[in-house]
Design a protein that fits this description.
Chain B: This is Molybdenum transport system permease. The complex is a heterodimer of chains A (about 270) and B (about 280). With about 270 residues, chain A is α/β, with parallel strands linked by helices. Chain A contains nine helices and ten strands. Classes of the chains: A alpha/beta (about 270), B mainly alpha (about 280).
Amino acid sequence: MTRSARRTRRMLPLAGVGVAALLALSACSSSDGSTPAKADSSGSASPKLSGTVTVFAAASLKESFTTLGRQFEQQHPGTKVAFNFGGSDTLAASITSGAPADVFAAASPKTMAIVTDKKDTASAPSTFARNQLEIATLPGNPDKVASLKDLTDPELKVVLCDKTVPCGAAAQKVLDAGGIKVTPVSYEQDVKAALNKVELKEADASLVYKTDVKSAAGKVQGVEFPESKDAINDYPIAPLKNSKNADAAAAFIALVKSADGQKVLAQAGFLKP
Amino acid sequence: MTELKQPAAARPGKGGPRRPRVRAARRGVPLPLLVPGLLAMAFLLVPLLALLVRAPWRSLPSQLASTEVWQALQLSLISATAATAVALVLGVPLAWLLARTEFPGRGLVRALVTLPLVLPPVVGGVALLLALGRNGIVGKSLDAWFGITLPFTTAGVVVAEAFVAMPFLVISVEGTLRAADPRYEEAATTLGASRFTAFRRVTLPLIAPGIAAGAVLAWARALGEFGATITFAGNFPGRTQTMPLAVYLALQNDPEAAIALSLILLAVSIAVLAGLRDRWMTGA
């Protein structure tokens, strides 16, 4: 075998690794597989709704909004509701950098303000639900967690949301209000991540929303605590200025705020606005 | 980092790309290769340039001064290096087994070993939790027998990074081994060397460039690892908050800080990789 032939043979696998590297690196981006719908330019006052409504919604709304999305599609055949659930801040950041969305439902007024400050909403946001914190513990509460103060036990592995996301800000607020200092093992990137750590039994307790405890359906046990009244979170919703489907966006928001929508939200554990 | 006055036009900074020196006509670069090649270069470099152009150069010094950034950077460098070391110690023998021994189902094993390459990192993190977590298949015993819990510890960060980065090394080394002539080893064994001695004294030096290339790839991948780390090791400043985690969370409320942190990470990794290149990547 000649030397050059051997070198080519040696380079081939390296090239393969390069391709594989590219492939793997591309796996690191967050998915946003929604495409804006073609606007229905019929221009009539009460058009028949069609096309896709893209809703960016806080992670804690996942269950209730998925149900509402199905209801919406049944009520308006020919429409499709595409959801992008995530941390409110991440969603707000992607909206202000031009992500194609029609509706934004945030888990806190502060994160909604990121979008309104940039004048990216079509009209003023309105509160459609409220949420309260609860302690999530392992099923059966083996560690006998009964109050917020119990979370200071150094034997206990506690996870909190990071202060940059609404559930973390709320947790900080109730802890400060109670004058309690908790050292968690981790500050999670969103509320579902904090809940998952308890669901997987990797952490003993976490501060999450009532709705999250409910959605975990028995995999965690909720413990209410009085300080949670100090940090009840308002959930604002708003149509977005760059919406390609403004009519459908307005209709979806109307559904969320209707009696039907409120019923679904209440079932998920949200408080009335 | 030098202070740059932001020009109105996008002028590449120090780290900007050099104009490709196209030797026209004499060697003849075929157009169907030149155009997509330049397009690829632009595609890879323009986003980085955008980072440089939009970088908050003014606040960079104050960002650098914060202890959290140093903590995260230090942790990133240490854990990526440790993960690469783990990958080398375990991955090179695995690559040798795959390249030099015959056993049933070898092709399947090779495919499975490279799975973490295509697995979404977050899923990798969950898989690690289910295996090595406090309640995991293996983790349960680790906890019960040795009192070792990996999640939420710096060791957990290293495990997560090694899990994602090791396949790069294995593929790279295995490819090099396949390309390397096995007759040198065979000659050594016929001259009385044991198989391990032959591996240590003949094969290893022979494939060193391939190992180096694989290690660099693995290190870079470990340095940028986000999904598996935050899922398996969580996020606690100074213990498990690596640079990518810090960047992600900074992005939530201070995009400028996030860009600054990214630049720091970029600069450090470029410096390290360039340093290594001069050291022992020559001729690879």
